[in-house]
Design brief:
single chain, 157 residues, 7 strands, 42% helix
């Protein structure tokens, strides 16, 4: 279980949420995943993300896989993972940040999300607060993460 921020390119005539709902409805869980084939611009956007996150947030580790590019950030605020596939991306934060520990990692995730939006033109959506990243409330997001983390600690351990 993770706290997720998802990214997509808004489809013409649709809101970001409608775009995400359409994408989810089209997803076939039984279909074979398509290997990653990035355009030159998408590859350049990934390189920009790596440089900017490293410079503005802190050191990262990255790896290229058959289906996505992945960035891990393990720093004083905590751990997050960014998966990028050119036309989509997502940030995942584990539910291990109860209480005040949630605010630093959420703030970092939103900062990374802003970099992803600027570098790629994709729009980020925080499904837990049900708001686009551009208008999202970091404190509300941190409260959601803290609540989920507390629930997970109380009920899953």
């Amino acid at each position: 279980m993770t706290y997720d921020i998802i990214f997509a390119r808004r489809r013409p005539g649709l809101t970001l949420l409608e775009t995400l709902e359409d994408r989810a409805a089209e997803h076939d869980p039984d279909a074979e995943p398509v290997p990653l084939l990035l355009t030159t611009a998408q590859r350049a956007a990934w390189e920009l993300i790596l440089r900017r996150v490293t410079a503005e947030v802190g050191p990262v580790t990255s790896q290229e896989y058959l289906y996505s590019l992945t960035l891990w950030r393990d720093g004083p605020a905590g751990h997050l993972q960014l998966d990028y596939a050119g036309d989509s991306a997502d940030i995942e934060i584990p539910y291990r940040y109860p209480g005040k520990a949630a605010l630093p990692i959420i703030a970092e995730a939103y900062r990374v999300a802003g970099i992803v939006e600027e570098a790629t033109g994709l729009e980020g959506f925080d499904g837990q607060t049900e708001q686009p990243i551009a208008v999202g409330d970091i404190e509300a997001a941190a409260a959601k993460l803290a609540g989920f983390a507390r629930w997970a600690q109380d009920n899953l351990t």
